[in-house]
Amino acid sequence: MQEKIKLSLTVSQHFNKVYPHIVNYTDALVVRDVNNIPNLNLKKSFHMNGFIDDDFDNVFKDDFFYKLKLNNINHLSFDLGPSCKKIVFKECNLADGPIFSKEQILEIGLCKIKQIRSKYNGIIALENLDYHEGGAYEHICDPDFINYFVRKLDVKLALDIGHMNVSSYVKGLGIDEYLRELPLDKLVELHVSHANKGDDTHGVLEESDYAIIDKIFSIKRPDFVVFEYFKDSSIIIDEQIKIYNFLRGHNNR
């Protein structure tokens, strides 16, 4: 029997409203604020948007690692990016300053991993981002660079299929081609939502998304799946149940 694929629920603004309805359809939690961690007997992971930029240094202080230990969190994930020190948001995130080279991104990443590893021994995963022009996403959305970066840092992969769909669409790559370049042997998390061509809409999953998930599972089963839709609480409830039942089909094989 293969290890069960667990369905996680993000602790978002809808959490208190939706969780009572999906207790039996939630295996784990994703927290984004160590000061707001529900006291529930569920496996928990922590996710943060920044890794290369300044936001990282504002979060990773001694009390952060203390709170991870206090809550038995041994699974961290970060966005692999941006490719600059600061960003400014207009229609999308734009680089606010020099764009880093691949070598600079790797050097910064190695330094950050060393900093984390000095205080934390659990799983670290990096998430692919969705490519947009403007400088903040250069290099980091290229599947061959993601492969190189993940292996060099000796970390795991958190694959976001919405981000992958956007990047492959904008860059003119087929999904199969994009997947072939990724380090899927390192996959531990799968973030799922629907993207509309070049727009990461974080929408409800469609049949095409389920087909991609099936394809990924045929290569490597992740430990966790995270449904990343945050708009309507009633839809979160319905879709969490639908995805849970979909995963149950895979878990029973």
Describe this structure in words.
The chain is an alpha/beta fold. The chain is built from nine helices and twelve strands. Strands 1-2-3-4-7-8-9-12 form an eight-stranded parallel β-barrel. The longest helix has 19 residues. The protein is globular. 35% of the residues are buried.
Summarize the structure.
The protein is of the alpha/beta class and 253 residues long. The chain is 38% helix and 21% strand. It has one domain (6-251): TIM Barrel, CATH 3.20.20.150.
Layout of secondary structure:
Elements: E1 6-10, H1 15-18, E2 28-31, E3 43-48, H2 55-59, H3 62-70, E4 75-79, E5 87-89, E6 93-95, H4 102-117, E7 123-127, H5 143-153, E8 156-160, H6 161-171, H7 175-181, E9 187-192, E10 194-196, E11 199-203, H8 207-219, E12 224-227, H9 233-251
Parallel strand pairs: 1-2, 1-12, 2-3, 3-4, 4-7, 7-8, 8-9, 9-12
Antiparallel strand pairs: 5-6, 10-11
Helix pairs in contact: 4-5, 5-7
Distance between the termini: 8 Å
Number of domains: 1
Please name the CATH architecture.
Answer: Alpha-Beta Barrel
Structural class: alpha/beta
Low-confidence stretches: none
Q: Briefly note the CATH topology name.
A: TIM Barrel
CATH superfamily: Divalent-metal-dependent TIM barrel enzymes
What percent of residues adopt helix (DSSP H or I)?
25-40%
Largest sheet: 8 strands, parallel, barrel
* Broad CATH class: Alpha Beta
Compute the gyration radius: what is it?
17 Å
Q: How confident overall, as mean pLDDT?
A: 93
Record field, number of beta strands:
12
- For the biggest β-sheet, the strand order reads 1-2-3-4-7-8-9-12
Provide the succession of SSEs: EHEEHHEEEHEHEHHEEEHEH
